[in-house]
Automatic annotation (TrEMBL):
<dbReference type="InterPro" id="IPR036380">
    <property type="entry name" value="Isochorismatase-like_sf"/>
</dbReference>
<dbReference type="InterPro" id="IPR000868">
    <property type="entry name" value="Isochorismatase-like_dom"/>
</dbReference>
<dbReference type="GO" id="GO:0016787">
    <property type="term" value="F:hydrolase activity"/>
</dbReference>
<feature type="domain" description="Isochorismatase-like">
    <location>
        <begin position="4"/>
        <end position="177"/>
    </location>
</feature>
<protein>
    <submittedName>
        <fullName>Cysteine hydrolase</fullName>
    </submittedName>
</protein>
<dbReference type="InterPro" id="IPR050272">
    <property type="entry name" value="Isochorismatase-like_hydrls"/>
</dbReference>
<dbReference type="Pfam" id="PF00857">
    <property type="entry name" value="Isochorismatase"/>
</dbReference>
<keyword id="KW-0378">Hydrolase</keyword>
Length: 183
């Protein structure tokens, strides 16, 4: 599994707080711990901007409308949730758009590390997971999506993506099945 990396995406306090399922973070923590125990690097992907949001154009419907100070270094809600906190030796990638690749150095880190298989988890299924899955597939990465390691405010959208869309480009499995396979 030395060519595999687990991408844990947008597990920031202000984003995870929108997910109602109380079992989501403990389940995701199991995946992170299983990866660490198996020697699979965990890469943490966060959305972040400079103060004043110079990277967010006014015309960008999602990011141009952010409140002043949101997802900046001063914003406590931009921090990675403590249940999934990165270890000192784990890479944190900061992105400027929805996809983990957009406005970040993710691809450089993946290529330098020789990673060819990405395991995806995060919030939201219809946001960062979908955008990253599509772009990673176009970049020829082998993909696994942890269906219950992803969450979305719209459960039907989550279901359609994990059952009908993602299987076209990725293996879709559960955290439990994946942890058994890597353990």
């Amino acid at each position: 599994m030395s060519n595999t990396a687990l991408l844990v995406m947008d597990i920031q306090k202000g984003i995870v707080g929108r997910i109602a399922a109380p079992d989501y973070l403990p389940r995701l923590a199991q995946a992170v711990e299983a990866a660490r125990n198996a020697g699979i690097p965990v890469l943490h992907v966060v959305v972040g901007f400079r103060s004043g949001h110079p990277e967010a154009a006014d015309g960008n419907k999602m990011f141009g409308a952010l409140p002043e100070g949101a997802f900046t270094p001063e914003d406590p809600d931009a921090a990675i949730h403590p249940d999934i906190a990165p270890r000192l030796d784990e890479v944190v990638i900061t992105k400027k758009r929805v996809s983990a690749f957009a406005g970040s150095d993710l691809e450089m880190v993946l290529r330098a590390g020789g990673f060819t298989h990405l395991v995806l988890a995060g919030v939201a299924t219809s946001g960062v997971v979908l955008s990253t899955c599509r772009q990673a597939a176009d970049l020829d990465y082998r993909l696994t999506v942890l269906a219950d390691g992803c969450a979305d405010a719209d459960e039907e959208v989550h279901r359609v993506l994990t059952e009908k869309v993602f299987p076209r480009q990725a293996e879709v499995t559960s955290v439990e099945e994946w942890t058994k396979a890597v353990g």
